[in-house]
Amino acid sequence: MKQFEIADASASDMDAVNNLFDSQRFPPAPGKEGVRLALDGDGHMLGAIYVETAPDGSDNVKTVVVNPEYRGLGVGAALMEDALRSHPDLRLVSRGVSVGFYEAIGFKRCTWDDIDPQYKADCDSCEDLPTCYPVPFRSAL
Ligand SMILES: CC(C)(COP(=O)(O)OP(=O)(O)OC[C@H]1O[C@@H](n2cnc3c(N)ncnc32)[C@H](O)[C@@H]1OP(=O)(O)O)[C@@H](O)C(=O)NCCC(=O)NCCS
Asked: Does ligand 1 come within 6 angstroms of the Cβ of 120?
């Protein structure tokens, strides 16, 4: 695995970012703000993260996806560590299948009271809810 770097997304990256998000059934990011990319030495996108400030003012990882070819190599952890440098108190709602990832990188399970009500409502209305088992997490408790 070559080295990779984390950098801001540009407007021209957003089609590829949103295709990556869509491939894992995540909604698109509305724009490049809050989107950071993991790029290899040739500028190929290995993964992407979108951090959004919720209506309650909290910073939330809305989406983090690593290209399946590059999973298990530390790319997801690097995207999260990068986000933590700018947003030390990060919240998120994990899909059940990804809970082990967030626990491995030191996030703590929290209560839904720590999560903006909009995100809880999004889960409650999601057609995947019966099989997703979403879990709220917070970096700083
Ligand atoms: C979840 C995801 C972002 C992880 O990215 P990644 O680059 O493969 O993760 P890393 O290689 O950085 O792994 C960091 C640690 O998490 C662990 N980990 C990664 N995915 C895991 C999973 N699904 N379950 C349990 N542990 C996991 C790794 O073993 C590693 O642990 P270690 O430090 O003890 O060795 C990636 O699997 C992905 O894109 N999944 C599909 C999209 C998704 O579900 N996103 C999260 C939505 S809530």
From this structure: no
Cβ(8)–Cβ(35) below 8 Å: yes
76 CB less than 6 Å from ligand 1?
A: yes
Residue 72 structure tokens: 């298990």
Token pair belonging to 9: 């997304």
Probe target for ligand 1 pocket from 101, 122, 123, 132, with the most ligand atoms within 8 Å of CB: 101
For residue 140, what pLDDT band results from cuts at 50, 70 and 90? confident
Check the CA dihedral 134-59-35-40 and report its sign: negative
Q: Which CATH class is domain 4-138?
A: alpha beta
